[in-house]
User: Fold this.
Amino acid sequence: MIRLRLLLARFAAWPGHVASWLGERFELEDSVLAVLKHPVPRELERPVGWWYVFGSATLAVFVVQIATGVGLAMTYVPAPNSAYDSLQFISHDATLGSVVRGIHYFGAGAMVVLVLVHMTQVYLFGAFKFPREANWLSGSLLLLATLAMAFTGQLLRWDQDAFWSVVVAAEQAAQAPVIGDWLAHLVVAGANVGGATLTRFYATHVFLIPAAIFGLLGIHLYLVIKRGISEPPVAGLTVDRRSYRQRYAAMLERGIPFWPDAAWRDAAVSTLVVAGIVVLAAAIGAPQLGKPPDPTVVVADPRPDWYFLGYFALLALIPPATEALVIVGLPLLAFVFLFLVPILWPDGERHWSRRPVAIAAVALPFVGYVALTVAGLESPWVPRLEGASLPASVTRGLDAPALHGAQLFIDKSCWACHQIDGSGGRKGPDLTHVASRLSRDQLIARIANGGGGMPAFAGSVTPAELDDLAAFLQTRR
Ligand code: HEC
Assistant:
């Protein structure tokens, strides 16, 4: 009995021993501990402190992304003939594979959202103003890196949607003035989407951008600590470059230690966010893969993940003539604006109630993007793909009228709304087996009269063309 107690007492003393061993070797008091306990404005103790949690939550999700990303990379094979199968294996056979993929998927969406919420808060609180301009600039680069991660990651799925997304992205990149061809070549890693493309996206996704993020994150966190956390804005209290630092230093005199007085909110929200991602991943799992990539089957509406849907919808809705301008100009404008924000407005009012234009600069793009996303969800986006054609399995063995009908199916843009054997848009019903549902007369009536989302073609196709279209569709049983 006495022995057991002695043993327990020894065990109980262990953490203390370890701590003092580490303490003597590393002397963390004046580095890590000092950083953790650095003073922050006393106001963060109040409920307004809840607005300050999104940066750390983003960081927490990023750590989760690294962990799950490394896990996925252990099994994923970045080669065109194996990528799809290795993902199928991860999703269906590997232990916890579906959950890990699911966490990585929902984590990506969460990271995009959290970065944007964090930036919105910083913007509306005027926290980007003097002396924290460089925090904002490094943060803007981190936003760019996060979006690049989301985009390259989706393509690693290497299913039909991913494959055709690259094709569409490359076609759009090629429209950029002057550098278009070079840009498309850079994205595709050659003239055609294939093995080299996948390797390039993989290396970009797992090495290049993460390395950039680590570097930027280092700068960003250094600045956050060095410049101090901004105090909640007060209407009427302006930032003046000569007096601000003095005022801030005085404020910190009565400040509170970051850990634990302010950091517990960060810890709580980060835990909640990560738990939410894990629950979603466990309940819903990884997103379904589409069909394996097949260069001969053109998918008319490759869908990106939901947070990019608005941008894709925009590309579909704008008139073709403005495409080059919008594809390159709009993102460029958005980022130039981001970078100009702290340079153009480094001082003055911080409080949002005194900055109505700033509120509009947040609200209008937000409402616009939500509307575009809804539009993107409702109407499948039909890209203008050059040289679209039906798969050989469809056109093989057709007689002349039916073959002509198959060509009309593309030329009259039926293909943009209807799929046949996996090729085509998804706005209308799949016509792969339409002949087993509809007779020749019914087919002709449907095409001529339209209705229910289907345009009437009576005015835009001749009776002979209508005959050929019907002849073609009649072969679809
Ligand atoms: C703008 C998109 C769009 C285009 C372009 C389009 N369709 Fe449709 N189509 C639809 C929709 C939506 C429906 C479903 C209408 C409904 O539910 O009543 C439909 C229905 C049909 C049907 C009936 C299918 C069924 O199973 O009931 C046929 C046949 C058809 N379309 C053929 C064509 C042909 C041929 C063309 C080209 C000449 C064409 N469509 C062009 C959207 C489109």
In short: Residues 37-378 form a domain with the Cytochrome Bc1 Complex; Chain C fold (CATH 1.20.810.10). Residues 436 and 477 are 5 Å apart (CA to CA).
